[in-house]
């Protein structure tokens, strides 16, 4: 993972697919691909992915902090 990335490419793909499934876009993506999404759908998906990544990063930092304290 490069210094600027919060998650690696495989993890990002897993998150994208998981979020797409949760909001009901998985079938559309399977049928038409990522380019088949409307701007609204892509924006919603991107926003939820960003939230998920930030939450993961925050939890990771908390775990590191607890480890330092112990």
From TrEMBL:
Function of the molecule: SASP are bound to spore DNA. They are double-stranded DNA-binding proteins that cause DNA to change to an a-like conformation. They protect the DNA backbone from chemical and enzymatic cleavage and are thus involved in dormant spore's high resistance to UV light.
Example of a GO MF term: double-stranded DNA binding
Xref: InterPro entries: SASP_alpha/beta-type (IPR001448), SASP_sf_alpha/beta (IPR038300)
Gene Ontology BP terms: DNA topological change
A Pfam cross-reference name: SASP
Protein name: Spore protein
